[in-house]
Amino acid sequence: QVQLVESGGGLVQPGGSLRLSCVVSGFAVSLRAMRWFRQGPGKEREPVATIFSDGRTLSEDSVSGRFIISRDIQKNTVYLQMNSLKTEDTAVYYCNRADPHYAWGQGTQVTVSS
Questions:
Q1: How far, in Å, CA of 17 to CA of 35, rounded?
Q2: How many Å apart are CA 56 and CA 36, to the nearest integer?
Q3: What CA–CA distance (Å, rounded) separates 38 from 46?
Q4: What is the pLDDT of residues 5-15, one digit of tens each?
């Protein structure tokens, strides 16, 4: 049974940093492209960053140079290091298989505010 458990969110001031974690069970993150998504207030869910099975990474333009996706194969966990946070990064953040998706986890709330 696939389970995705996100954590690490919180309240942070603009310019601050957070590190999100996604503990995965039911499949090996090394064998699937994994992606972080986010859904801001009143917005649709959107992709943020992807790590492919071969370790290559890809970030959306809105977070390029600020967010870094990584994984720990032994811990079967995917991370999102978020730096230089902006108010527009406020959202619930989710991780999932890039495509097709598994059932969504509960997400983790990130609020960027002064």
A1: 19
A2: 14
A3: 5
A4: 999 999 999 99
Residue 36: Cβ-neighbour burial (10 angstroms; 0-12, 13-18, 19+):
buried
Q: What is the DSSP string of 20-34?
A: EEEEEESS-GGGS-E
Place of tokens 């290559």: 56
Average pLDDT over all residues of the chain: 97
Give the integer Cα–Cα distance in Å for 35 and 69.
8
HSE, CB side, 13 Å, CA atoms: give it for residue 66.
16
Are 68 and 26 spatial neighbours (Cβ–Cβ below 8 Å)? Answer: no
Over residues 29-50, the mean pLDDT reads 97
Q: Which tokens belong to 8?
A: 């690490």
Evaluated on CA atoms 57, 50, 92, 76, the torsion sign reads: negative
3-state secondary structure of 107: coil
* Type of residue at 98: A
Q: Are 37 and 58 in contact (CB under 8 A)?
A: no
